[in-house]
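Lab notebook, bench 4. Still working through the backlog of constructs that have no structural model yet. Next entry is a single chain of 215 residues. Request: give me the C-alpha cells for it.
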Amino acid sequence: MSAQPAARFAVLVPVKPPAVGKSRLAGLDGGAARRRLAESFAQDTVLACLRASTVSQVMVVTDDAQFSYVLSALGCTAIPDGVSGDLNGTLRQAASEARRRWPDLVPVAVCADLPALRTDDLDELLGDLDTTRPSFVPDAAGVGTTLYVAGHDEFDPQFGPGSRVAHLASGARELTDAPASVRRDVDDPADLDEAVSLGVGPNTAVALLAADLTS
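Model written out:
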C-alpha cells in the first residue's frame, strides 16, 4: 500500500455571499434555489478540500458572517473579505494571513463553485506537484481558472475574465491533465448538468432534490 502524500497545502476558498453569487442560475425559482445551490457548491468544495490528505488547512474568505459560521462548522477557518470587489487582492491578503498562521504550508486558491470536486482528484493533482513555480488549472471551458497554486513569494493570482490567458502570460504553468472534477466549475444550468453527470457532493445533491432539478 503506497504512503499518503504529505499534507503541505493551505487551501484558500473565496466565497461570495450566496445572496449575490451565481447570478446566471437566478432563473431557477426567483432566487431561493439559486442561493441554496450557491451555498451547497461552497460547502461541497470545502468538504472535498478538508478531506484531502495533501491539505493541512482550509481557509474560507467571505463577507457573509452567517454563512461563515456554517462553513467553519465543517472544520475550516473563516476570515472576512478584506479587499471587497477585488478577488485577486482578497486572495493575496488571504495568502498573507495563511503564511502568518501556517508558514510551512503552500497556498492554493480554489474556486468555491466546484460541487463535483473529488478529494481523490485533488490529492492526485497536488500529491506530486512541483511548487517551485506557480501553476494553475484551467476551467472546463478552457477560458477561466479553477485552481491556482504558488509559493508565498510568487503568489500572484490572475482570476477574472480570461484568467487562463492572464495566468499563462504571468508565467504560470498550466496543468492541462487535471482531473475533470477539478475543472468543472458551475456558472450556468449547462455547467450544472455537467457537474451532475460527474457526480456532485451531498449538499448539492440535497439542494437539487429540494429544487426538483434532478432527472
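Notes after review: The two ends are 39 Å apart (CA to CA). The CA atoms of residues 162 and 202 lie 31 Å apart. Flag for follow-up if needed.
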